[in-house]
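Chapter review: from sequence to fold.
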Amino acid sequence: MEAAINNRYDFIYLFDVQDGNPNGDPDAGNLPRVDPETGEGLVSDVCLKRKVRNFVQIVKGYEKPYDIFIKEKAILNNSITEAHKQEGVKDIKEKGDKTEAARQWMCRNFYDIRTFGAVLSTGENAGQVRGPIQFTFARSINPIVTAEHSITRMAVATDDEAKKQSGDNRTMGRKFTVPYGLYKANGFISAHLAAQTGFNEEDLNLFWDSLKNMFDHDHSAARGMMNARKLIVFKHSTALGNASAHTLFSLVKVQLKDDQRPPRSFDDYIVTIDKDKLPEGIEVLDMI
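The token string follows.
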């Protein structure tokens, strides 16, 4: 595989939802996640990483070195056991060396481990991996309103349910949506951790493609209309970095054009980058 990336990156990712639930909260009856004090909507980092994994599966299948470790119905310990059976791993006697060899094999063959990291000590020990890419929770720019809808199903699931109905077999349900919300997630890419996992330029380009396109392959009745709107990347000229992430993030402003009415589309916002205050050694890449 090619050499790992040697530049640090920080990025801002803007995406929106219209008439959908971007990330249901299982602790709240699958209502859209929300900050109870501010009313701002939330989407977890785990949710975003899942969509990246799904996109990589579509593009690359399950072929190594782009296999996905955390995938639907996966038995994780089976993959870890497979690593311990590989040439260059199985014959190592010293426990620590064998664990490290298994960890390296997992990094080489699983894209999401190389990218996000993983705990690989749940069965045969392959250690732990800190991934070079991390997200914050995405937070909506403005408070969201959760709309609750009653829905009707013209069928029942069992004979017992049918006996309880009046004869038309109608059953009622609930659906929750956000009329509109623009969300912002901050992201960080560490060249130091990329060197430990082997995360390279090809992996990085695949990650950018995922952020640009993953919502187009994730449509469902529950999620409504979701779109990637902005991907603003700050590329540092060094591996250590040339400025703090919060300094760079503060250069990007997302504001309503008219704060007297609720937003209902991305066109209701204006996004600006104050490039005059850009620190030395930083390049801005406006990818979307």
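Two observations follow directly from the output. Residues 234 and 270 are 19 Å apart (CA to CA). The mean pLDDT is 91.
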